Amino acid sequence: MTNVPTTTKADWSSDQEVRWCPGCGDYSILTAVQLLMPELGVRREDTVFVSGIGCAARFPYYMNTYGVHAIHGRAPALATGLAMARPDLHVWVVGGDGDMLSIGGNHLLHVLRRNVNLNILLFNNQIYGLTKGQYSPTSEIGKVTKSTPDGSIDEPFNPISVALGAEASFVARTHDMDRQHMMEMFRRAHNFPGAAFVEVFQNCNVFNDGAFGAITKKDKRASMLIHLEHGKPVRFGDDNEKGVILNSYGSAEIVDVADVGEDALLVHDENSQEPSLAFALSRLSAGPFEPTPIGVFRSVERSEYAAEASKQLAWAQEQSGPGDLASLLHSRATWEVS
Amino acid sequence: MTNVPTTTKADWSSDQEVRWCPGCGDYSILTAVQLLMPELGVRREDTVFVSGIGCAARFPYYMNTYGVHAIHGRAPALATGLAMARPDLHVWVVGGDGDMLSIGGNHLLHVLRRNVNLNILLFNNQIYGLTKGQYSPTSEIGKVTKSTPDGSIDEPFNPISVALGAEASFVARTHDMDRQHMMEMFRRAHNFPGAAFVEVFQNCNVFNDGAFGAITKKDKRASMLIHLEHGKPVRFGDDNEKGVILNSYGSAEIVDVADVGEDALLVHDENSQEPSLAFALSRLSAGPFEPTPIGVFRSVERSEYAAEASKQLAWAQEQSGPGDLASLLHSRATWEVS
Amino acid sequence: MTDTLPRIVGTRELDRLVVRFAGDSGDGMQLTGDRFTSASAFFGNDLATLPEFPAEIRAPQGTLAGVSAFQVQVSDHDITTPGDAPNVLVAMNPAALRKELPHLEVGGTVIVNQDAFMERNLAKAGYEGDPLEDGTLDNYTLFKVPMTTITKEVCKELGVKPRDAERSKNFFALGLVSWLYGRPTQPTLDWIEAKFKRQRLVADANSAAFKAGMAFGETAELFDFNYEVRPAALKPGTYTHVNGNTALSWGLVAASQQAKVPLFLGSYPITPASDILHELSQRKNFGVRTLQAEDEIAAICSALGASFGGNLGVTTTSGPGVALKSETIGLAVSLELPLLIINIQRGGPSTGLPTKTESADLMQAMYGRHGESPVPIVAAYSPSQCFFAAIEAARIALKYRTPVFLLSDGYLANGSEPWCLPDIASLPDLAVEFATVPNHTNDDGSEVFWPYLRDPETMARPWAVPGTPELTHRIGGIEKEDGTGNINYESDNHGHMVKLRNDRIAHIANDISATMLEGDIEDAELLVVGWGSTWGAIVSAMTRVRKEGHKMAHAHITHLNPLPKDLGDILRSYRKVIVPEMNMGQLCRILRAEFLVDAQSISKVQGVPFTAAELHHHIIGALDD
Amino acid sequence: MTDTLPRIVGTRELDRLVVRFAGDSGDGMQLTGDRFTSASAFFGNDLATLPEFPAEIRAPQGTLAGVSAFQVQVSDHDITTPGDAPNVLVAMNPAALRKELPHLEVGGTVIVNQDAFMERNLAKAGYEGDPLEDGTLDNYTLFKVPMTTITKEVCKELGVKPRDAERSKNFFALGLVSWLYGRPTQPTLDWIEAKFKRQRLVADANSAAFKAGMAFGETAELFDFNYEVRPAALKPGTYTHVNGNTALSWGLVAASQQAKVPLFLGSYPITPASDILHELSQRKNFGVRTLQAEDEIAAICSALGASFGGNLGVTTTSGPGVALKSETIGLAVSLELPLLIINIQRGGPSTGLPTKTESADLMQAMYGRHGESPVPIVAAYSPSQCFFAAIEAARIALKYRTPVFLLSDGYLANGSEPWCLPDIASLPDLAVEFATVPNHTNDDGSEVFWPYLRDPETMARPWAVPGTPELTHRIGGIEKEDGTGNINYESDNHGHMVKLRNDRIAHIANDISATMLEGDIEDAELLVVGWGSTWGAIVSAMTRVRKEGHKMAHAHITHLNPLPKDLGDILRSYRKVIVPEMNMGQLCRILRAEFLVDAQSISKVQGVPFTAAELHHHIIGALDD
Ligand SMILES: Cc1ncc(C[n+]2csc(CCOP(=O)(O)OP(=O)(O)O)c2C)c(N)n1
Ligand SMILES: Cc1ncc(C[n+]2csc(CCOP(=O)(O)OP(=O)(O)O)c2C)c(N)n1
Ligand code: SF4
Ligand code: SF4
Ligand SMILES: [Mg+2]
Ligand SMILES: [Mg+2]
């Protein structure tokens, strides 16, 4: 990080016109990222944004960095190759809930279990924006959309649970109405050496307006957003009157602090090796209509994929010296004809 | 189930020669299934086995039922269409760890969250058998195979955790050395109205022999397999001296019963609405080298996909009467030309 | 303004008229065009439309990229295209004017929303001066109308807020143009009532704006004439106005009904195919099941599973989706089950131009799989004909137990035309016979079921669905023995099966209609061979060419695999053969390979269809060669 | 037995010999064949091999389905195929005899393991009687050898358990055949030592069995002669013995070295391509990174990501995997980045015949994508030539910044031949120039980087990799403006880009070698056009045909897209053109479409290569026409 020139938001903004609908939550996420970048002490040319297809996936065009706008669902896979080939880069992956949990669900799972050094931002608007409003794998049951005129019948994914089930080592959640919180989560993701997964609640004001309003509106936040903070008891409420405990079946439960006493509250441990705690917290809320945790659910370091691969290369070179083509061709039985 | 003729194992065995390697664990799973079928009170012609590609996926050929041996990874998707089109059938899905967790991982996730009425048997041998021995997404880190001569560097999936992260409503585990237990789990899967996921530890004696030996060998079972039984304290050990508790961070922990007292033990509740308990249990073991739970982790009924879809059809017909083609064509503004 | 007495203005008659509505994505131009079209259809004109919109949901307001346009040709005679250069351009803002003006016929009419020509908007559109004043429009007839102002004014009386009122300005434009071209008003007013019945104020504002537009035309001293396009002498019948995706969806429902086999659609949203999913998900009372799958692979797999279960499995998508489905199509070839793969083609390669039209996926349909895996291909050629194309594709799939490609494209999908509704009784009977009993007697006298024992005439295997006693069987993608269907790795068997799969598709040529051939069949100097959505433009161009005294013929290929049996002879009987395609010459290559005929490709790959004028030009050029 | 004195037996000379080893999957026939081959290579023969094995890991023992075979032709002169009908069949059990006997030349030699001909095994093979006794082998020279018994006996002394000893019987067979055909023994003994150095008993048992086999030949009174196939007069040099997959892997390593660009392989296991992944995962000291991805889509995407990062991205697979990769290949076409897609073709459609060979994916490589997305195609034609084919494919990808298809097949992949190792210095320099500085000056004088500004000669765009200051840029699959690379939906731009992408690939024809043309170039009556692995059989057949006094020529196509520039003229200069292919005539169709030449397809799709005899027959037939 030495000698990295000082930059401003403007340096990180590309010259391309931003083409989201006016009022789209994607704007505020973009702003948060562009504001954060100068703080990270990295170079623009060492930063790459990779995306799939969708409204969210237009993101790379607006960053004055390297970028690939790939195909639907495949960004994590493409980014894996890039991160392995170039462990020196900072690679970000951006996509929507359709992109990363519907068509691209499998690549997301595998990138998480492999712990490839990527910062993965899932813009969850619970809808297919770019294709004009079909339901997505995070839409609530009963959702009426163009493709489900009688209401959807699919149980939605809880992206945090999915990630934890797939051995994710860094898992966080934030929302598009809180720039500071977004910046903090993105910074944490950047600093994490491995696959860092961040779900961002994002408002699609055209096809799913207000989906998160019940929890992210300014006046709702205190009572509906449960801030997870490492080492602190999990509390929330307009007067911090609510808290979270773990019951005897390992489930997280919301309680009145007055009822149980402060000491009974769960103290959040994002570094818990075992993901059960994080998982239980992810189940606290079944959707953005009840108190919902945000913040870092889990942050546990383990060996990073690209680094491990590089180590094997280094080891091989140590063992057998740098490859010599002539020796390779002669490495099996040979004979002379004269 | 009325008027279902009595059958025997032989009735359920097709005339095709079984072509697994001698000694392969797949044989005993096949036997368990063929022995179970006559007990289920279903007709052969109402039963369909669907599979992908792999050694495991050869399964349908050996069942004297309807069957589709599809393509690699896609069995859950194909079976979804079949189950929706024909809710009257009993559809089983069989596949290997590569088939269902590598290339087919996404379809598995989605079929689980949708809760399609399928009985899904994942034959986990922690290896790619049919392609002759590459590592799989369940192989342990450091595994030396043809494609990982220096040892694999990928964190394996825990199939039970993956399923739970994907909202699975029925999740169980069994192994190929215990016919009775397999039959019990398969029966439970069959009886469950929704997507029933069963992981079967399966020995590939050619490419990964003994992978589960440390826990499934007759003399190891008591001390290494933790039987989950609904409503009972979780205990195991040669003298039942070990037990499982939930600690204050929601993690399951193995303890000496003598140390904590019987009452402190976790009483298994497979019907717990909240999957955190099942998830915690799935994390007890990081692989088949330490005490590992088997049995039903979770069994929670919720609306089944094909049935819900059928309900919408019935409702639509109630609302607007059975479709009439002429009215459909005339349903928009029309005018006459004469 | 609405209560002044009508001025007397003259009326002039036109035989056809091409209007292009253009504005910002948010200006409601698609709706406006659609309403104008509907009223014209109701009036009895023949017509054809061409909607064009940006790929973004809301491209930045006021920019060239944000322009959304809708072109419609209305006519007093049979027409087949949305017209070449528009006669009238309605431009709601400077960007629309700038982007669309180049297409307008010289001397054409430009109607602009004067209120939108403020400095900021001019700059956004890249105008340095004001085109309304600086001579830019000297060669056109310009009408400057303060649409926003008037709309706001009439809405004010209703208590509508100015910001909301502004949204109704497209209805003002519609009213004005409706007056100018003598369109009936009642259908539009009725439609507004029905559409906004739960939003009273919006309904009132739109009606008021619409009426104000009509009144403005009548009253303002700008217009000395209005015009009339008389109803076309269409064949008698009941008509409706339909676009390709709707017609195609209805065709699928019809096929299911005619076959008495339930319809199952497995699909994943993608432009421009999504509307078929939307339409069919509303057809549950026809027993239609739809699944929005997790991806295109799951979509086709679910459809194939449904087919195995005895449904007519269908999957709809566009080119990128077909790429993902290719492995499963190969499986369907091997399983020999009915399956429809519907590709609403769009601009490629890769993500390409999602909202623009192209027909460059023919080779993919022919060859986009590994191994020898032939699949029949049917192509639709006009919006309403998508209905019949769907039925024909289903007929082949059901009868021959094979996956079938149905090709449409963005232009057919969103383009619309009046459609003389067919008599249901005239639709083909697609009744399917499922296998019910064993079909083979073993040497020992036992009766068994062989899933690959073939019908001697169709070479199709039996369709035995789960639930049928005694017919249990297992099928898969590994090579199998003919007859028993058992896995078989023998050389000779494989050779036999490869040839058989080839022959059974080739054989379908005996069961399709002869090549559609029109024009100077006997003595044409030139044959134009087309397929798909070029049909309309070729027909139009041929009319012009023949009016000019040239002899030409037009063969339109609806079955691209197998090709019609008479096609070789037809091709060889003309001195010159040209093949216009919205690709780099894909059918042309197929014809050359198949028939060794020196067919020449005319290619346009620009995201927009050929115009009749372009084709006319190419044809004359070829004739002059 | 080993210490009896050698009998005197005569030695007869052969110019070539085709041996086929056949036994149960568990009998180690592939190994046996491989060792025989290696010893022969060491001895200096020219040779070619054809392994054939079942798709199951272990098909049921003793059955026809379980038979695994290995054919090798060794010769004292240059040969190009593993031979037509074998001269010698070594059958380790009744199933092997039954399955393979039909291929043997009439009068050929059959050596059986007599011990395996027990009733149970005979029944499993479907024999009713005992073929060794009932006259089945009357027209052959039969040698019955109790291989199991002798092997067990010699192993007993070593303390090897009888069950384990039995496993060494293939080495007995190898010893016997080695003696019979005068193969050198030391290489095999050395190999056993090296291979089993950590399993002392196994090494000893195998050596003992091998020696016992040699001794048996010498001692037993069965054989009156042994034979000699003299070393071939091969061109001088250092030789090694290599199969296609290994040669191809080494070619990739070589390309990476010659380009000084790291190699990245993203792959998903699939027969018969997996061995390339296995081989390259052992080349980490060359800086080769391999990723066993979660599926084929992730595999190619990761490779493309690595290419974006400045690596040579490669993905290896077989037909079904290519189907899955097609969408991403389209993206690579749009991104204009180097990428190799390597297809080791196998029998299709669908899962087909995974372990058998076929070359039916040419059309998929040409056309298996949506939209107009041309991709260069290189095809390998012999096992060792896979090395050079890989280098050539990489050269085109790197120089022209494009995905390139490299086609091989199961026969080349597993077939082997002696390879005269090339001088490293003779390999082409593939050095790549990465972009390092801005390449465009704006009107305002500022310097910027345009990712789609092209090299005027190659039409390739610059390869600017992340980490390079000032060159940050964004690329994607949406249509883009040439030069800037910005998203662009304009009609004219799209037309331009489609044409440009077409031209830039077509243009590569200027930079590939002329058509490989041999035989009676000037005055042939017939031209045979081939591609891929048919090369060996065509060359052999041509030798025979010309020996018989006919005039023929052979053009072999190594670049299938674009085709060599001289090909049209070549095709037109012969009266007859036939195109033998292991598919239903795919290249033939391309040639007909491209050059309007009446090329005729000769097709064999049976999972096994053409033999020279079959082609000879077809050629004579065509000449007689
Ligand atoms: C292979 C493929 N299938 C389908 C599509 C169409 N498509 C584009 S984006 C999208 C989903 C958009 O939803 P999401 O990922 O949630 O992103 P959002 O637009 O909501 O940000 C779909 C289905 C495509 N481009 N490619
Ligand atoms: C599209 C595709 N990719 C790859 C393959 C090759 N393949 C067949 S089975 C298999 C994996 C087998 O492993 P698993 O699913 O664990 O089954 P097992 O053989 O171990 O029972 C692979 C990679 C294929 N048949 N199709
Ligand atoms: S459609 Fe929704 S997600 Fe997409 S840009 Fe518009 S508001 Fe944003
Ligand atoms: S390879 Fe392994 S899994 Fe496959 S049949 Fe053999 S033993 Fe069973
Ligand atoms: Mg979304
Ligand atoms: Mg496996």
Which bin fits the share of residues in helices of chain C?
Answer: 25-40%
How would you state the average pLDDT of chain A, rounded?
Answer: 96
Q: What percentage of the residues of chain C does DSSP assign to strands (E)?
A: 15-25%
Using only C-alpha atoms, the radius of gyration of chain A works out to 22 Å
Mean pLDDT of chain C: 93
CATH superfamily of the largest domain in chain C: Pyruvate-ferredoxin oxidoreductase, PFOR, domain III
Question: How is this structure best described in words?
Answer:
Chain A has 338 residues and is of the alpha/beta class. Chain A folds into two domains: 9-232 and 268-310, Thiamin diphosphate (ThDP)-binding fold, Pyr/PP domains (Rossmann fold, 3-Layer(aba) Sandwich), CATH 3.40.50.970; 233-267, no CATH class. Chain A is built from twelve helices and twelve strands. The model of chain A has no long low-confidence stretch (mean pLDDT 96). With 625 residues, chain C is of the alpha/beta class. Chain C folds into four domains: 10-229, 3-Layer(aba) Sandwich (Pyruvate-ferredoxin Oxidoreductase, domain 3); 240-426, Rossmann fold; 439-511, no CATH class; 516-624, Rossmann fold, CATH 3.40.50. Chain C is built from 20 helices and 25 strands. In chain C, strand 21 (526-531), helix 17 and strand 22 (552-557) form a beta-alpha-beta unit. Chain C is globular, with a radius of gyration of 27 Å. The N and C termini of chain C lie far apart (60 Å). Strand 2 of chain B pairs parallel with strand 19 (474-476) of chain C. The complex binds thiamine diphosphate (2 copies), iron/sulfur cluster (2 copies) and magnesium ion (2 copies).
